[in-house]
Amino acid sequence: MGRRTKLVTAHGPAEAAVDAVDDPAFLLVLTHGSNGGVDAADLLAVREAALGLGGAVARVTQPFRLAGRRAPGSAVKQDEAWLQVVAKLRRRFRDVPLVQGGRSNGARVACRTASAAGAVGVVALAFPLHPPGRPEKTRVDELRGAGVEVLVVNGDRDPFGVPDTADAAEVVVLAGERHDLNRDPAAVGRAAEPWLRRWAGPAAGLGAARPVRTGGR
């Protein structure tokens, strides 16, 4: 799924699985969690939603994962590498709107770098609000400080916590889902589809079901 290409960064090579389309409406760049990969079920569901709306999709394996490491290390270096990858991808797709996102740690990266990358929005899957059992170690500032509108999709049983409806433009909470969001991946895609539609052509994906949201602003 997707043509894989290596991308050089200052912190090691990354890899992107790119699904290109003719005359894309937007570019969606997604990435994995700290111990996962780009074939996670929720990422694939969002990929399908984007392709159905005429978007191009790049699923990025970050340098630390490509090197076989389970932890991203320095957030500064991780963000630098991410911005270099996104810049290379944007040169390929030119002036289409950029939406970036990811799951868990990848959602944090997408939020932290959204403004610098020139993104128009962020899709944050399983945003890890705090370490399990440590609500005082909140990461809410990363979410609130994205500088662009953020869609959060979390499970109501996520031990990493669930962002409040005031923390993002929209928060969708899926019943029965934990941090991996793999109980019903199609529901994740349905949650992302209306959000992505705003950057699609006017006739794209007409008639698709809209998810029930818990709130937003």
Architecture overview:
- InterPro entries: AB_hydrolase_fold, KANL3/Tex30_Abhydrolase, NSL3/Tex30.
- Keywords: Hydrolase.
- The chain has 217 residues and is of the alpha/beta class.
- It has a single domain (3-199), classed as 3-Layer(aba) Sandwich (Rossmann fold), CATH 3.40.50.
- 30% of the residues lie in helices and 22% in strands.
- It has helices at 41-52, 63-66, 75-93, 105-117, 140-144, 185-197, and strands at residues 3-7, 14-19, 27-31, 56-61, 98-103, 121-125, 149-155, 170-174, 215-216.
- Strands 1-2-4-3-5-6-7-8-9 form a 9-stranded mixed sheet, sandwiched between helices.
Number of strands: 9
**Strand portion, in percent?**
15-25%
Name the poorly predicted regions: 203-217
- Classified by CATH, the class is Alpha Beta
Give the biggest sheet: 9 strands, mixed
End-to-end gap: 35 Å
Number of helices: 6
What oligomeric state do these chains adopt?
single chain
CATH homologous superfamily label: Alpha/Beta hydrolase fold, catalytic domain
What is the N-to-C order of secondary-structure elements (H for helix, E for strand)?
Answer: EEEHEHHEHEHEEHE
Q: Given the helix and strand composition, which structural class is it? A: alpha/beta
**Number of domains in the coordinates?**
1
Level-2 CATH architecture: 3-Layer(aba) Sandwich
Roughly how much helix do the residues carry, as a percent range?
Answer: 25-40%
Average pLDDT metric: 91
Question: Biggest sheet, strands in spatial order?
Answer: 1-2-4-3-5-6-7-8-9
**What name is given to the CATH topology?**
Rossmann fold
